[in-house]
Amino acid sequence: MVRADATLNRQRLVLAVRDAVAEEGPGVSVRDIADRAGVGVTTLYRHFPSKQALLDAPSIDRWATLARLAGQAVAGRGSLPEIVDVLDGLTRMVSTDRGFIAALDLEVGHTPSTIRPWKHRFDRHLAALWVAAQRRGELRRYADPHDVVELAGMIRDPRRRERMMLTLVNGICAEGVDTERLLRRRSDTAMWRAVLRSL
Asked: Residue ranges of the HTH tetR-type domain (predicted)?
């Protein structure tokens, strides 16, 4: 029970800092963040040793979730459908976090050092999926996973997200791949459900 409460408090703090920074900027006080989360400042510091660690938490959690999901796809010998799920999950996450990302001036392609280990783990798993899909002839030969992740990271308008995702997926998939079907199927996958739970 204690562990479950601690996990819930951490989740509340991560959501609180994301929303507080989006609304008030990075200068928002630690006390205000704790109040939003419904916890005390002591509890906040029990989870995060500094304000910077708290500010890094939403980005770390985002990449940790994506790395875990991509790793599960590799273990399951997945390829193109799972790549589309991962990219779609990434665009959903960054569009949800768009205010937070803008307030911290986080740039696509420039990963802060504290986040880098999780991003590198994600990159390794995605590269393995990518190679498998290219060998199967599912992806265009010139398509590069690093380029595609950066493009996906720029999709932040929730109203245009699905349309832009379709454009992106059409650009990387080989001729004959039904990209609209690939995007429709995502809501039925365990990976997609896990992404939704993380938002």
From this structure: 7-66
H or E segment at 195? helix 190-198
Q: Could you tell me the fold of the domain covering 56-198?
A: Tetracycline Repressor; domain 2 (1.10.357)
Alpha-carbon distances of 16 from 22, 54, 75, 156, 176, rounded to whole Å: 10, 10, 34, 20, 44
The predicted structure's pLDDT at residue 196: 56
Q: Is the dihedral of CA 37, 43, 45, 47 positive or negative?
A: negative
Beta bridge partners of 149: none
If we measure between CA atoms, which residue out of 12, 145, 132 comes closest to residue 73?
132
103-151 pLDDT, tens digit per residue, is: 998 877 678 888 899 999 999 999 999 999 999 999 999 999 999 999 9
Extents of the domains making up the chain: 1-48, 56-198
User: How many helices and strands (H and E) does the chain possess?
Assistant: 11, 0
Give the CATH fold of the 1-48 domain.
Arc Repressor Mutant, subunit A (1.10.10)
Instruction: Find out whether 126 and 83 touch, Cβ atoms under 8 Å.
Output: yes
Place 187 in a pLDDT band, splitting at 50, 70 and 90. Answer: low
Where residue 199 falls among pLDDT bands split at 50, 70, 90? Answer: low
**Is the separation of the CB atoms in 13 and 41 below 8 Å?**
no
pTM score, whole prediction:
0.85
Give me the mean pLDDT over the 162-183 stretch.
Answer: 90
